[in-house]
Design brief:
By secondary structure, the protein is of the alpha+beta class. The strands form three sheets. Strands 5-8-7-6-10 form a five-stranded mixed β-sheet, covered by helices on one side. A hairpin with a 2-residue loop joins β2 and β3. The radius of gyration is 19 Å and the shape is globular.
């Protein structure tokens, strides 16, 4: 048996209609830094990062048709460092050119969703100490005090079928990953 190759997600890139508007939002509000910007034969490309060990984590390229009848991007998600950061960023969305979709819990995460300036769904999230089978989407009130917010989420998810602690779920996933064999190696 060959060991699984080590791999991790390095970056994501997508086509945009208005590259300047998108770069402005993702640098100003999300906190990315432009690491490179240039021209390709078919348009402009911008590389951005929040990690000095990664040249780019996000890439925007011109060329997205403006007349798409649907958005081909399901979502882009950003993990945050704390509940307070989630609250602060959620509150700051009201001053941005975005459509706020609201805060929810997935049982395993506490999230705020919005549509960026080009209508791409973006999730700002923090983890929770629980797991419930997905999909799970329950509205939450981020204005509640910390203890009350966490207690209300726990009350909603603890009785759900498949509920377990995040630690239990993580141990199960580690076992599945160890047992899985790569197809090409």
């Amino acid at each position: 048996m060959n060991p699984k190759p080590k791999l991790w997600l390095s970056h994501v890139g997508f086509y945009v209609t208005d590259i300047n508007k998108m770069v402005d939002f993702y640098t100003r509000f999300i906190g990315f830094t432009v690491s490179d910007r240039g021209m390709r034969p078919d348009g402009e490309i911008v590389f951005m990062t929040r990690d000095p060990s990664e040249h780019h984590q996000l890439v925007f390229a011109t060329g997205r048709p403006g007349d798409l009848s649907f958005n081909v991007i399901n979502q882009i998600s950003f993990r945050l460092d704390s509940l307070q950061t989630l609250r602060d960023m959620h509150a700051a969305l009201k001053d941005e050119p975005v459509q706020i979709l609201g805060p929810v819990t997935h049982g395993n995460a506490l999230s705020s969703y919005f549509l960026d300036p080009e209508g791409n769904r973006v999730e700002l999230l923090i983890g929770t100490p629980w797991y419930v089978p997905q999909p799970c989407r329950l509205p939450v009130d981020l204005s509640l005090p910390d203890e009350q917010l966490w207690a209300s989420i726990e009350k909603q998810v603890v009785g759900m079928p498949g509920f377990k602690t995040h630690e239990q779920w993580q141990q199960e996933i580690e076992a599945k990953l160890a047992a899985a064999q790569p197809l090409l190696f």
